[in-house]
Amino acid sequence: MKDRPLIVIKYGGNAMTDERLRKEVLKNIIYLKGKGYDVVISHGGGPYIKKVLDDANVESEFIDGQRKTTPEAFKYIEMVLKGQVNSDLVKELNLLGNKAVGLSGRDGQTVIAAKRIHKRFVDGIEEFIDLGRVGKVVEVNRALIDLLLDGDFIPVIACIAADKNGTGYNINGDTFSGTLAGALKADQFVILTDVDGLLKNKDDPASVIRNLTLSEIQTLKDEGIIQGGMIPKIEACENAVNSGARSAKIINGTKPEQLLSILDDRHGSSITK
Description:
Largest sheet: 8 strands, mixed
Number of strands: 14
Shape: globular
Order of helices and strands: EHHEHEEHEEEHEEEHEEHHEE
Radius of gyration: 18 Å
Strand content: 25-35%
């Protein structure tokens, strides 16, 4: 392996669906690579999945913010993530002058998944809910990714994986990316979202918490500062740092220039041990 710092970027949100923003984000990723960083891009594609399921008249039920995935829905989800979103990102990176390779967790058995059972409490009673073909990461094999990085490629990885019997699963993009970043011992795990980071006051865009440690996360949850869609993002950062990444950062992907300063504290929220 070449001895270059590694950045794992979880790509999604408006930074992916807006064509102009997407091009700027990808240009800045290539800039980072030109500055001596290895880069791995991990992605989901919620808006694209919604459109293809709507077009196919496939029902898509959400339970506690998570998409229940039937075998029929999974077929379309895998098709759009690998056949459209992943392929388009690879095409654009290549057109911008880099060598990108598209894959999912299935390829080379890079990610081994298992079925995920959702647990929740209703009136103090614990319930277990079958979400269908929704999975969790149980193992990461970095051999294929290392091979691509050594060849100076940018791996672009869709959050789909299979279990040891070959059954495919859709995995939450934040969870998938954070686990990947930890397994790869990334120097920096970066989540692109639609806000400037974790806000102390959700109604005040200037109240970004620039630095927090793992020990502070539960208190911020208890105080209601970490809430809603920020919960899985913070948990993905927590998982990444706990499992081997040096640090994690949440930045605003709709402001692509923030990518160029991810290794300092000018933008976003950094999470460390």
